[in-house]
Amino acid sequence: MSDYNITIGRYLATGLAFRQIALTFRISKTAVSSIVIEVCKAIWKIMKEKPTPSIADFENIAQGFYENWNFPNCIGSIDGKHIRIKCPKNSGSMFFNYKQFFSIVLMAVADANYKFIMIDVGAYGKDSDGGILSNSNILKRLENKTLKLPYPKKLPNSNVTGPYTFIADEAFPLRTYMMRPYPRRLLNDENKSYFNYRLSRARMTIECAFGIAAAKFRILQKSIETKVENADHIVKAICILHNVCIDLEKIRDTENYNIHSDISSQINNLSGDLTDAMATTSNESDSSQKNTGNEGNDGRDDQNNMFECNICLENAVDAVVSVCGHLFCWPCLHQWLETRRGRNVCPVCKSVINKNEVIPIYGRGNSKQEDPRNKVPPRPSGQRTEPETSGFPSFTFGDGGFQLSLGIGAFPFRFLTSFNVSNGPHVFPVGSQLQQDDQYLSKIFLWIAAICIIWLLLA
């Protein structure tokens, strides 16, 4: 069973092809394929939590959103992610999305700690987020009341009673159980703009969840070259393992966080061993450990910035989030805005976007917190000079100061000649054999042109 775990772990973490893993373990490619699919099915069957979150679970999620993101009565942020796949046979354009690649869609709901609480996998890549949600089991259970939500509750510091809702971007519909930002055309006061900012800030959890999952499981950054039904099993197993990693790494230290007793005892024993070892080391080793710790902190700062850009589909560098709630690399967004002047729209939802209305994102523990918008200077627009072209052949006479151009139209009704006198540079070195040959040919063509002109005048 340990070989199975190593095989599935290497495949999900690196995205290597089945053939490469087969060569590593000296087994057949068919055996690797069957191992991966069987283990993914077992992970989903055994490790998945209860299928339906209870009312108490939703209340705990809402409490986490209010404490961490200052957004009350929120029970999850919802969005979709396109998972790259190999083009299925005889599928036409059903899986071809607007990003110009084949995919299936993972529709997921995340809590305030970047954990997936509900997922729906396998929708066609061509469908929009709103269409995928309308056909998903999540919406069906909300509509037929089988997914129980908490009763409405008064908002903090107010007597207004508001329902518990999911939050989404502008691609989703507005419902009593789903809240979206105000459209751009209705932002006529500061209160609505501030509401959009708070909603986008809280909705960032689902984007971060997708980015963390893609950073840990590199198979999501490549094309899954299996059948569509097998790709569904792989994605569901990744969602389960993502939640396990969130718990074990203590990304968010909340009141509801509980760690297994065996893991706690191992960590305590390891901490005691490290304390004893550090007590017996010299001052030099202490200083080297401090330097190593500083390097490790820098590495963690880099890992905290692992967000997925919606333009390059890689981990975002200098991440920024738009008012409509989409993440981008600032260099990618800057290039997008510079190349589309006069039509600054979001690459995802086509809402209006500009430099002053994006929000920088700083990773947890990042002490610099420099505005990335100041790092990329405005790129000057390119000026292309077209080369001067001539529609007729030309001949030079002498040292290049006399030039004759001839052109024949609808002969014999039109015959065009032009003479240009210029002080251009010599094409060939003075006194060379090439210059002499060029002058000789120029004289010949000049005499031919003169004979043609005389013949036309006498005819």
Describe the structure in your own words.
The radius of gyration is 34 Å and the shape is extended. About 14% of the residues have low confidence. 42% of the residues lie in helices and 14% in strands. The chain is built from 12 helices and 13 strands. By secondary structure, it is of the alpha+beta class.
Keywords:
14% strand, alpha+beta, 12 helices, five-stranded mixed beta sheet, 459 residues, 42% helix, three-stranded antiparallel beta sheet, single chain, extended, 13 strands
In short:
This protein has 459 residues and is of the alpha+beta class.
Order of helical and strand elements: HHHHEEEHHEEEEHHHHEEHEEEEH
Structural category: alpha+beta
CA-atom Rg in angstroms: 34 Å
Q: Calculate the terminal CA-CA distance, rounded to whole Å.
A: 101 Å
Q: Profile the largest sheet.
A: 5 strands, mixed
What is the element layout, followed by pairings?
Elements: H1 2-14, H2 18-25, H3 29-47, H4 55-69, E1 74-84, E2 103-110, E3 116-124, H5 129-134, H6 137-143, E4 153-154, E5 161-162, E6 165-167, E7 178-179, H7 190-216, H8 228-249, H9 261-279, H10 283-303, E8 319-322, E9 327-329, H11 330-339, E10 358-360, E11 394-397, E12 402-408, E13 415-421, H12 433-458
Parallel strand pairs: 1-6, 6-7
Antiparallel strand pairs: 1-2, 2-3, 4-5, 8-9, 8-10, 11-12, 12-13
Helix pairs in contact: 1-3, 2-3, 3-8
